[in-house]
Amino acid sequence: MSKKTAGTFSSQLGFVLAAAGSAVGVGNIWRFPYLAAKDGGGLFLIIYLILVFTFGYTLLASDIAIGRKTQKNSLRAYRLLHPKWNFLGILTFIVPLIIMTYYAVIGGWILRYVAAYCTNEGAACAEADFFPHFISNPASSAAYSIIFLALTVFIVYKGVESGIERCSKIVMPLLLFIVIAIALYSLTLKRSDSDGTVRSGIQGLFFYIKPDLRQLNPKRFLQILLDAMSQLFFSLSVSMGIMITYGSYVKKDVNLNKSIAQIEWFDTAVALLAGLMIIPAIYVFKGMDGMQSGPSLIFVALPQVFASMGKIGLLVAPAFFIMAAFAALTSCISVLETIVANFMELLHTSRKRTCIGVSAFYFPASVIIALGYSLFYVDIPLPNGSIGQLLDLMDYISNSLLMPFIALLSSILIGSIVGYQWIAEEFCHNGCKMARKHVYAFMIRFVTPVVMCILFLQAVGLFNK
Question: Where, by residue number, does the polypeptide cross the bilayer (predicted)?
Fold first, then answer.
């Protein structure tokens, strides 16, 4: 497959916004705030920031450099690193194949709230049974998943520059504006309870940023570390072939040092702002109990917060869920693009024909996952001791099992077999050098393999026995 067929980003800005769009997704808006609340606020933030600029940089730099240097997608790129490690490309390709079965379902959930708040159903969203009733309704949950997937397919069908890049240039600045506006508004909130207790957004801010060292012990610290590390995978779109695919679309004159730094900062800023706009609001209207809402934070607890705001909530709520829909859309686009690009290279077919063929599989697959809370409901025991449904199973296999395993093997391949210089050389264009070469070398050779091994062993349930 020629590069002309695959497409390229027209500029460094186009690449950064598209890659940031992939990274900024449901993980930032939904997962990051509830993990920060669950894990004691500031301590989680400190650990996460350290991981982003060490592990995150290492994994992100590896993926993007592999893509640009090989000019191949993940399915073929690893063969060029080492012929005997081609299986790693296959494993990497399996991850987006699995993720795509359920990502449109989550996007459909968000789209349902957008529709509700933009019509006269906004008040109903605050009812405790609104979300469970929606996802257990076969027709409604399937329909919204199909609509979200159709929009994703249309953008990928249009191509790299005309579809993905153009969408990202519009959506990402708008998303950032909405996040900042709501975050600033959350800090102005104040509420008085019947007993005279006053809670403010500023107090919620201190809960968010102040490290909670109470009841801290080695086991709890390890859990926070693992939560932060799993969030990094979820957030930066690493070890799933996406950044290898996007890297293969990057021209040689693009400065990878600046691009990777911009992606890191953009993604991290949105995650931090997401926590800033959600946690103070939850604190003001639901107190400390609201901080334990877990995965239901934005679908159950947050609509109740919006309802408590009165008329202003009718403006903030649709803005929030529109922003969340944008974030989910850009990430879903990157997952589907990775799948389409790999099949284009594997089958030597055109983008449009490949899009149609791939979507013919994922429309029914998404419907089946959506119906996992109704017609196909089944309790599935997971290795971490929890009970999940079809969506939870797909997410566990892709994010908790395969991604740490791929990162482990990739770090061994680059750090101990091919050599980190192979990656560093790709940064050396137009007089540039790899800015964090020594950090990268130390992380890829000594630290990343150990931590990824621990993550993988935790995922298979070793630490739960």
Answer: 41-66, 87-111, 141-158, 170-188, 221-244, 265-285, 312-336, 356-376, 396-418, 439-463
Q: Which of the 8 DSSP states describes residue 53? A: I
Q: What is the pLDDT of residue 215?
A: 67
pLDDT digits (tens, 9 = 90+) for 30-52: 788 888 888 878 889 999 999 99
- List CB contacts of 363: < 8 A, sequence separation 6 or more: 146, 149
CA gap 180, 184 in Å, rounded: 6
The values of phi and psi at residue 387, to 5°, are -115, 130
Residues 6+ apart with CB under 8 A from 223: 39
3-state secondary structure of 380: strand
pLDDT tier at 1 (50, 70, 90 boundaries)?
Answer: very low
Could you state, in order of their start, the residue ranges of all structural domains in the chain? 3-464
CATH T-level topology, domain 3-464: Amino acid/polyamine transporter I (1.20.1740)
**pLDDT tens track for 228-269:** 888 888 788 888 888 998 899 888 888 999 999 988 988 898
In whole angstroms, what separates CA 15 from the centre of its chain?
A: 17
Count how many Cα atoms sit within 13 Å of the Cα of residue 224 in the half-sphere of its side chain.
Answer: 25
Q: Degrees (nearest 5) of the Cα angle 359, 361, 363?
A: 65
How many angstroms separate the CA atoms of 96 and 93, rounded?
6
Strand 387-388 to strand 380-381: parallel, antiparallel, or no bridges (unpaired)? antiparallel
- Residue 158's SS3 state is helix
Tokens of 275: 């926590």
Residue 214, φ and ψ in degrees, nearest 5: -70, 140
Going by C-alpha positions, the residue among 246, 222, 268 that lies closest to residue 57 is: 268
Model pTM score = 0.88
Give the pLDDT of residue 2: 43
Count Cβ atoms within 10 A of the Cβ of residue 135 and give its class: 0-12 exposed, 13-18 middle, 19 or more buried.
buried
What number of residues does the chain have?
A: 465
Q: Which two tokens stand for residue 79?
A: 């063969």
Both tokens of 72, joined, read 């191949």
Give the residue from 96, 125, 460 showing the smallest Cα distance to 300: 125
Question: Angle, nearest 10°, between helix axes 86-117 and 351-370?
Answer: 60
d(CA 330, CA 333): 5
pLDDT tens digits, residue range 161-207?
Answer: 666 667 767 777 887 888 888 888 889 888 887 777 889 989 999 98
What does the block give as tokens for 167? Answer: 């969408």
Cα 273 → chain centroid: 15
In 3D space, the residue among 217, 208, 179, 231 whose CA is nearest the CA of residue 288 turns out to be: 208
The two three-digit tokens of residue 180, written as one number: 């900042």
